[in-house]
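S.,

Sequence below, as promised.
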Amino acid sequence: MSVRSAWSLVCAMMAMRRRSLAVAALISGAILAAALVAAPAAAPAKPAAAPPGPPAPPPIGYDDTPMLPDGKWRVHDGNRPRPRMVTPPSAVPPADPGRPPSDALVLFDGKDLSHWQTQGKGPDKGKLVPAAWKVENGYMEAVPGAGSLISKESFGDCQLHVEWASPAEVKGASQGRGNGGVLLMGRYEVQVLDSWDNITYADGQAAALYGQYPPLVNASRRPGQWQAFDIIFEAPRFEDGKLARPAFVTVLHNGLVMHHRQQLIGTTGHKQVGKYTPHEPELPLTLQEHGNPTRFRNIWVRRLTGYDEPAPPPAAK
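The prediction came back faster than expected:
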């Protein structure tokens, strides 16, 4: 074979090899493309779960409750202006309760619950049974689930002194913080609540005439500190089954006036406008248990009379 013939053969073989490699490349590309089309699309990566956030805050008030008689605000209106904070005077001894007046009936002297009872449960439902709140260190403490306390004695027009303290350990918010109440005649409530740096609806904070009128100012002390209510109450009068004169109440909280002979709209209710219903001229007091371990001490009451009227019977000791 001549040199030229050999070189021609080599060139032909190299051309054939290049064509084979090109064909193989085309086939491989087609196979890969088909595989990509046939393969399912990869699922997008799931975003990492967000860490749980804080619980939703409790409602501050309501916008679906009835309008109060003045037509300006709803019961527990969340938009009603809240009283400004005022530092009260040091009228309440920080450690020791004050002495009651000589003509007062002492309902709690730090020793026992002999002047109090509660509504029975279970087989005792409908009966009044001995109170079951905790008593220690000169105070009584509401036991969640034990029920509200009801005084054994009944009162109408009276001057009432109550010292109380919300729990030092802050738990809950709004109405779930240090909640309680002083219910005159068991139906006209002055609200007990931890209102130190605790936003709630205005007619539900400490010293409010619950569901009716907020206090003029917020005179609350810090959680755990003793506070005082001084209440002058004029009971309603009924004649022939009808209201002859509404109730009036004056409230001092930690020595500051919260309500000055304020006329009550009616009985206390939640999310409703109170109404008067005829009742006896004297009824027991109630200390409300609302699921919080609120404390009370130094509770005394004086029955009130008019000018030139004989003094009420001596208070039992």
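The chain has one helix and 16 strands.

Coffee later?
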